[in-house]
Write the structure tokens for this entry.
Amino acid sequence: MTNVFSCGEGTIDAADLDHDGDLDIVLTEEETCPGGEAHIFIFRNDGNQNFVRMPDINLPGRLPHGLALAEVTGDSNIDIITVLSDGMGVFPGNGNLTFGAPIIEYYARPSNLRWPTLIGDGLLDVGMIMQQPSFGTDSIGTALGNGNGTFQAVRTQTGSSVFENLRISNDLEPGDVNGDGTPDLIVFNYASNDVSVFHRKSGRQPAPASALRHRQHAHSWDPG
């Protein structure tokens, strides 16, 4: 067991960061002690259930939120993706448990990132819950990946609203729920205890579709 000291919680994920076949661990520090700075902790798996702490990624003046480990820069190395105070940050992996400076996408600060392939080009795209543009209303965003750690402009779809039975979105997952061979986005609304389903559609602008019964809500959207 390897211990780290932190004054708050974080997000943990595992992936093979150094191509040795073992799952390594990444942990974000999403709250800091007074006067401290946040870190992203990296642990190498030695293949014997031992995890060795590697050099941290220091984040002076920034707090990470959420975590994904995925290859989005086109070099076959796993990258670290998290949400920073100034946007979504992609830390390019070097394939040896070290990472380059973050590539920042200056979106409104999203949360709960997910990584489907939306248009079948083999590149990972991002689905996200955006910051509320107005009181009580969530927006769901999608951005197509360019394959180099950057993403195209975000397309947004109006999501849940506290004015509709306290529907507040807090998580999402991609999946093909209507059997058309393309991924949809399923958004979970914690206050109203239901889900919203966003179906991919043709055309350039996302537009809401009719609602489903049984506390499910359907929309259509265009990823790009």
About this structure: The chain has no helices and 17 strands. The longest strand covers residues 38-45.
